[in-house]
Amino acid sequence: MSINISETLTFECETGNYHTFCPISCVAWLYQKIEDSFFLVVGTKTCGYFLQNALGVMIFAEPRYAMAELEEGDISAQLNDYQELKRLCLQIKKDRNPSVIIWIGTCTTEIIKMDLEGMAPKLETEIGIPIVVARANGLDYAFTQGEDTVLAAMAHRCPERSLLGDEREETIQDQAMRNLFPLLPLRKGGVNPGPINNLKKHSPLVLFGSLPSTVASQLSLELRRQSIQVSGRLPAQRYTDLPSLGDGVYVCGVNPFLSRTATTLMRRRKCKLIGAPFPIGPDGTRAWIEKICSVFGIETQGLEEREQQMWETLRDYLDLVRGKSVFFMGDNLLEVSLARFLIRCEMIVYEIGIPYLDKRYQAAELLLLQNTCKEMCVPMPRIVEKPDNYNQIQRMRELQPDLAITGMAHANPLEARGINTKWSVEFTFAQIHGFTNARDVLELVTRPLRRNNSLEDLGWTSLIKGEKK
Amino acid sequence: MKLAYWMYAGPAHIGTLRVASSFKNVHAIMHAPLGDDYFNVMRSMLERERDFTPVTASIVDRHVLARGSQEKVVGNITRKDREERPDLIVLTPTCTSSILQEDLQNFVNRASVTSDSDVILADVNHYRVNELQAADRTLEQVVRYYLDKARRQETLDRSVTDKPSANIIGIFTLGFHNQHDCRELKRLLQDLDIEINQVIPEGGSVQDLRNLPKAWFNLVPYREVGLMTAIYLEKIFGMPYVSTTPMGVVDTAECIRQIQRHVNKLALVSLDRTFNYESYIDQQTKFVSQAAWFSRSIDCQNLTGKKAVVFGDATHAASMTKILAREMGIHVSCAGTYCKHDAEWFKEQVQGFCDEILITDDHTEVGDMIARIEPSAIFGTQMERHIGKRLDIPCGVISSPVHIQNFPLGYRPFLGYEGTNQIADLVYNSFTLGMEDHLLEIFGGHDTKEVITKSLSTDTDLTWNYESQLELNKIPGFVRGKIKRNTEKFARQNGIADITVEVMYAAKEALNA
User: What is the mean pLDDT of chain B?
Assistant: First the structure.
């Protein structure tokens, strides 16, 4: 391949015939994240079947989610939606007593125009449990965007910031952090951060995007090292602990698929958005922290060394991936950030497929991608929005990438054709944020390469009978 | 609206897709929103398919909602026709398209003008039928379509093969051990000197469907899928069919005898001879299959009267109930199925082989039934396996819905004579090994260190004194929980607060009585 470095990124848009998970799958991780919630998916057997199969064993663990399965009577409006939902929600209240019920609207509720947003407030007062409505349907969204719709809906439920209350909250939060990490040295070879009042006073910062709690603590810790205090998270561990928002609160996203949430926070809650690259990979994490610090006028300390240190620890994996090529088929919106990280790892990215690209919300990430490409002297990858899987497979036949990051529908067939694959879904569920977890990303990326290294000499890479053209 | 956590049978379109993608060179196009193509994941992951699943979606998005699909569906059909050159394209409606009420038949008509492939619209209604019913219907629809077409083109050859031959109908993708069953059935028919005319839909070609009537008879191994097709072929071509599932020693013999009757009717006329399979049945039963011998062996004796619960699809649950009760002397406390549409048949099959019958598609009802009965083993689906895990009762999986471990690489048929061996292993391994059980009882169990904290019963004010605790610890681990629960139940019923060894024995006696 001729190295032809184009100066700018190229964006394309295909037919949108691609495979991805339905956005209702967000209940899988959100119900675990928000401990006192209950997710009610108002949809059909199709939705239920997807959840049941996609979530595998979780389904047997008495999950805090259920289907409100619509029957023919509901579709033809022989039954009263409000009465039906009331009946189910009362049952949920009786059985589980959650602090919030989240209704997930689906394609069906859209098509029959069930007025979930209208019914929720009425029912809420009647049964005494908050009801949040999120329309996470396959008509409008893909996979992780489901979380975006839930968080955007939840942003409306965050309490309004009152100065007095916040001071207290910060102290409590901080105390909690200290309890969590009493033994960790907070800065290598440097001075330990002193008591709370040593932290620089800055406007409150709320991070949005759900993360496993250990990852959330790790990121808070990184910020604390720069004397930045995270005053709240959306979502919080419990619905009752949602952060207070309002004028003067700074918000920053941790995931690339949260553009609606970002918009809601800015427009409806008057928060200030910090547009930063996402903390995926050591480069991303550093850029993310730097951006936040620059907004608060804080000079970063030891961040470059910290990043360098991380790269050192990744050396064995970097040796494996160097010079190898990657093809992202696109299904979870993490693609740009991951591609940027992998390019920094000296990989070559042929194509970044992505379901939807919000160029404003991802602006900083796109810029970092562009700069990374220039710095590493590799061609800018083509970014294909709403990709067409059939066309992509034809392109892959031409390009023969060393690794395809793809959904499970294509993984086995591609492997049978001698193309290494990594399931993209794993990036959604694995811990990939922050310095600490950069290794996990590479662990995932290199797994097919490592596995296939050990099988290399066996002579059975391509395992299909002559394919017709 | 129904509050649902889990379902046994999937939505209708899954059935249609399973049939369509089982045929060779047939492509299905779903009229569905983004994300509804989860079927491809299941096929690729569970079946470990090497080929791309021939299913794509004609995406229903916001624009379609506003303006209708317009050219989109037709465009997608003609595009797929160009790209893959399939013999047949099946347009598959989903729950979404059911409500949109677009005239999909019209799209099909338009697309079939421009494309070389045949195009049909699967005749299934999401809100009326489930996965299995839809599969049955779609298979019949495809067969009917090609036979009608052959008749119109006058390419239909109505003569039968010279030698006895059979079609096997209903083997398809994501079916429970279907691939293995198919191989076993082929072997069985080969042993009986019967040629295989066609196997549909798995691996079948729609172009060959016109030759279906050349077979002497049809074999429909599974109740759920294929029966409609067999009945159609009987009605139009007078083809007889055998629908007895050859699962278990007795039913396999019964199935072979039925085959013999059908074959002989024609053989007498065209070959001037008859076949007698009795010696084959005898030979296989006594010496090839180990199941008959197993049922006489000491091992199986130890299973006598043990309680079991069976739940699954109609075919497997009914056959399993009969095998357990009739061939192994196991006490089936409850047999059930989620195939509500086939309840009558199921009841008739298991009548007399079990204490009670449960027809439901609500897994909590099944769970409650199992908790109440406390069987020594469960034979059910993956759901029952998990119920069993919670209650500490072993479970053998005998029916869909299934997980990846139910798609074994090794040869594991459930049908035919090798199937009887596999089932015997499954049953025997599911029950706590007979001898081990016996020895543990004699020597008071080997895991006496285990503390008895795991229990399903609610916390009570019942206290166990030192001796009774000691006694309880002597009971083998796998029945300890049950004894504890029973004793506490007994104590509560009799207003006893302190549990002594005496109370334990009294409870045991009361329950045995």
Answer: 90
